[in-house]
Design a protein that fits this description.
Elements (H helix, E strand, L loop, with lengths): L1 H5 L4 H8 L3 H50 L8 H9 L7 H7 L4 H9 L4 H19 L6 H10 L6 H10 L39 E11 L2 E10 L5 E7 L4 H15 L6 E4 L3 H4 L1 H9 L3 E4 L9 H13 L9 H16 L13 H8 L1
Parallel strand pairs: 1-4, 4-5
Antiparallel strand pairs: 1-2, 2-3
Helix pairs in contact: 2-3, 8-9
């Protein structure tokens, strides 16, 4: 057939030389051409099958990469040794070199890490840093070394203040800085003033024995908004609060009404506030009298007489309000509600409460 297809001789001459008929030669040539077509088609089909198989394999690897990245979200941003430890635990279809590229480390560095043993203390430090970063985020970046240490101990980790301080310093875990408070009390009024019965004694024998109240201000793009709160001295819990656009007696009265509704205090509870017109107003005094409160007021210009509430306001502003610009009053109200109910009362550790949250302290005191 090669002779017939490649020779310059006529097909009749070739048929004579081969001793066959011309029709037979034509049949052979036609069959040979069909066979060549089948072979070519088969070759193309095999190449296409190989390409499809390669694409399927690559698609599986890409899906594996995506799932691995989902599982390893908390590892990114951690020291290399933490990422190396995660890679060492992986036994999937991805090659080690490919996994190393995903985590931003070199395969050479990974192999060196496996060859050089890490001391037990360094491994413990890496574990502690994972917990410290999580607590730092949960505490709204407000926990320094003492509170961080107590949270770690509460999680069952045996750790000291100096070690926590060193790890926070080496990994740039810092508390957001605060600013000074501004005095807003308006004591220029004709209402009667009560004496200071607390004398800066902020201890309390039980719940609902000493309450303290105060007002602060918050700036938004819509204008000022004012926050009035009432706290229990024993647990430091915010038991009533109110937010309004004007600093009137209703602002403070509503906060007190909410505290009364929540706690139902017995007669004889000491209520301490500053000399502001809101707390000296007739409506506020009538509410106090109706529920048997003993009224106490700070001395003029002495914020330390109401240090418990002033401390709460400083904490609120440092951990929430000063960290961003607030667009609307509604946005501020939602943020304060979440901060007080979900974090300050329920989670935040207090030095004065033996490193417990207000709610936990009240449960123990009950």
């Amino acid at each position: 057939m090669l002779l017939a297809l490649s020779s310059s001789l006529s097909r009749e001459r070739i048929a004579q030389d081969l001793g066959i008929g011309s029709s037979t030669l034509k049949t052979w040539i036609r069959d040979a051409q069909k066979l060549d077509t089948v072979v070519a088609d088969t070759t193309d089909h095999k190449a296409l099958s190989h390409e499809n198989e390669r694409l399927r394999r690559e698609n599986l690897l890409l899906r594996e990469e995506r799932e691995l990245l989902k599982k390893a979200t908390q590892v990114f941003g951690e020291p290399k040794v933490v990422r190396f430890a995660f890679i060492a635990r992986y036994h999937g279809p991805l090659s080690r070199e490919r996994v190393c590229r995903l985590f931003g480390v070199s395969d050479r560095g990974f192999r060196a890490w496996r060859r050089s043993p890490v001391c037990a203390r360094k491994r413990q430090d890496d574990i502690l840093m994972v917990h410290i970063r999580a607590i730092h985020a949960q505490s709204r970046r407000s926990y320094g070394r003492p509170r961080m240490t107590e949270e770690l101990r509460a999680a069952g980790l045996s750790v000291g203040h100096r070690r926590v301080g060193r790890l926070m310093r080496e990994n740039a875990i810092r508390v957001v800085r605060t600013r000074r408070l501004k005095v807003t009390t308006n004591s220029s009024h004709k209402h009667s003033i009560e004496p200071n019965l607390l004398g800066q004694d902020f201890s309390a024998p039980a719940l609902n024995q000493k309450w303290t109240a105060d007002i602060t201000y918050i700036w938004t793009c819509e204008g000022w908004v004012y926050l009035a709160v009432a706290l229990d001295h024993l647990s430091r819990r915010v038991i009533g609060w109110n937010l309004e656009v004007r600093m009137t007696s209703d602002l403070a009265t509503t906060a007190l009404q909410r505290a009364i509704a929540l706690r139902q205090p017995p007669p004889g509870c000491v209520h301490h506030a500053d000399r502001g017109s809101q707390y000296c107003s007739e409506a506020y005094r009538q509410l106090l009298s109706a529920h048997g409160f003993i009224v106490s007021m700070s001395r003029k210009g002495n914020c330390w007489d109401n240090a418990v509430t002033e401390s709460f306001f400083k904490t609120l502003k440092a951990e929430l309000l000063w960290r961003q610009a607030w667009r609307t009053r509604q946005e501020v109200e939602q943020a304060i509600t979440s901060y007080i109910d979900d974090f300050y009362n329920a989670q935040r550790l207090h030095f004065a409460l033996q490193w417990k949250s207000p709610l936990d302290y009240e449960r123990n005191a009950a």
